[in-house]
Structures are given as C-alpha cells and as structure tokens.
Amino acid sequence: MAIRPQCVILIFSCLLAFSLSQYSYYGGQINTGCVGRCVAIQECPQLLSLLKQRPLQPQTIATLRQAQCGFEGRNPNVCCPDSSTVAVPLSSIRPKDVPPTQDLKLQAITRLSAWESHPNARLIPADECGIDNSQKIWGGNRTDMEQYPWTVLFQYQTSTGIKKFLCGGALITKRYVVTAAHCLARGDLRGSALLMVRLGEFDTEQNPDCERDLLSGKENCAPAPQDLGIEKIIVHPNYEARSSKRFDDIGLVRLDRDAQFNDFVKPICLPFDDTAPDRYAGEELVATGWGRTETMKASNVKLQVWLPVVSNADCGRIYQQKRISIGDGQLCAGGVVGKDSCAGDSGGPLMSTGISSRDGRTRYFVAGVVSFGPESCGAKDWPGVYTRVSRYTDWILNKLAE
Length: 402
Hints:
mainly beta, Thrombin, subunit H, 2 domains, 20 strands, Peptidase_S1_PA_chymotrypsin, CLIP, serine-type endopeptidase activity, disulfide bond, TRYPSIN_SER
C-alpha cells in the first residue's frame, strides 16, 4: 500500500456532504429504523419542548441527535415517539460523537509563566483563543456554521492556471496561521502558488452562508468570509520537501493584514503544556475541514470527525512496514474503519480540549496538523500522521512578529 504524503482526506467527505447521508461523523447511523413517525421537529411536541430548553444540556443534545431520522431538504427530521413508544431516560444516553464534558479528560493549562515570559507572548490572544460557542445537534459530520471558527482554507493557483482550495490551517493570532510545511514548501507544491487564505468559511458554494432556525423559522446568515493575502511564508528549517519521513512538517503563514475576529473567525489556542511523549494516547481528538486535495472531490461544507489517538510506539510499528519512522514530533490518530484518519484538509487542525486556568472555560487547542496517511483512505489499522504542535510552540513563538 502506497503512502499519500500530500493530503489526508475525509473518508466520508463526498458521501456525507450531502443532506441525505445515513452515516454520522462518528461512524454510526442516523436512526433509519424509526419506531414512531419520522417528521419535522415542529410536528413533534415531545422533542420540540426539549429543543426549546435553555441552556441545552449534553444529555438533551444527545437525545435530539439520536432521534434524527433523515432530512427534508436541509432541515433534519426526527423520530417522534407515538403514545406506545417507551421514552428513553435522558441519563441513559451516552453520545459518542460529542463525549460528555466529564469524559473529555480535560487538561489544565500549566507552564503559563514559562511561555508568558517570552518576548512574543503578548502576541498570543490567550483570552480569546479556543472558544467555540456552537451547540451542534444536527447533521452528522457536518459542523455548524460558526463551529471551529479558526479553521481556514488556502487557495492556490495551479500550474494550469486554475484556482483551487488545496490545503487548510488554523488561525492562532490575528496575523498568523499554522499549517503543514508541505502546503508551503515549493518542492511539494508541484507548480502551484499560494494565493490567499480564507477565514470564516463554511460552505464554499454559498455566499453568504445561511441556515434557518428550526424554532423561529428565521434565516441566520454569517458575514462574508475574509480573504487575506500572504505577507510571509515560514517553513520549519529542518523540513525536507518530498521526504517520506515528513519530520518537522509544520509552517506558518503571516497574513498581509489583521484578521477581524467575530463569531465565525477566532484563533485556536496553542498547546504549551502538552509535552509528554504520548500525550493524548487513548483519547479521541477531533479533526475538521473540507477534505481538500488535488486528486479527489471534497465536501463544500465544513466537516468534523472524532479520531482515536494511537501511541507513537504502535504507530511506529505500523509504518515500519513501509520503512517510515515516527518521531516524537509526530502524532498518530485514526486507523479504525468508519472513522479513519482521512480527516480534514492537509495542514488542517487536529484538536484537543482543555480547561483554561485563566477563567475555567473549556477551550480548544491545536494538538496536530494533518501531515500524511495511507494512500487508501480509510485503510484499517493505518492511522494518519499529524505534526505534534506542542513540540514546536517555542519555534512558533520565536517566529511571531508584530
């Protein structure tokens, strides 16, 4: 089996980008064996009353999510229980796609004094980073419009003159995006030139992005995405273009002007404390993106998938079959049929969650960036390989500028 070094693709990006998909982003199925009536939620008083609760509790979200039985256009239908249907207690629901807060193995931000003493620490938006206000309920692997607002798209002009989104990244400050070096290094671009970075995107085929509120019927629209130019490209000095090892596959893009933060454009936090060699092993992290690649059709809407992290030792034994070494600066996730490492855009983020010691809020951290994976996307027992961002936080800090 050959290795695809350039892009790691969402295994279900084509299948699940469409509204009639039967699969959830966690490898399960929407409730097609509905015991009751599969109707719009407005026609189901029992579930509509749950949807109106504020704030929405994790158990309530889980119940609504498990009740989904299909779509009517872009609106989800739910399995509405009839009078003979036995209700399922909320406390018995254990959602797999978004684990309960107590099961996230949340981390505290430590070593704050170490990085905050760095001269460039003032450039890190520590109070604003990693905050996601979305309360996603519907749509399988499809995200909400404002979910993961740090996810960006890179547009290139190919050697044939066509403009395409081929890589992704994560916004970390108003001026910097972290991504994979192979998305930036000339030796890997095969004649393509990076043109611009798009922030605040959800649906690449719709402008503006709009969704209809199920309760009010009101159409909510996002502001137009922000297209920013490139001021500077920074590739890690130890990265070797077109090398099968893909060590130090990380880079930065400095934007030509400040990003304007809003609900759809925010930075993600850097993982300053995640220095343990097998940090995340046994946990599940989330990747997001549009599955952009040069060779396969991708989704037009932003997608997500939760992935099990594989220890570096186990991952190294797997890739040894292809004479590829896995180093401490790398992180492996996926390798399970139905929720493989073919997740997100090349260079896009693999994310963990943690609790901020500043304010106690749960925040997202960029644990990895998509580096490479098996040629056969979704191959069993072959996880994808990500660059472990925590190994490069000092390098990132050193490269930041006003």
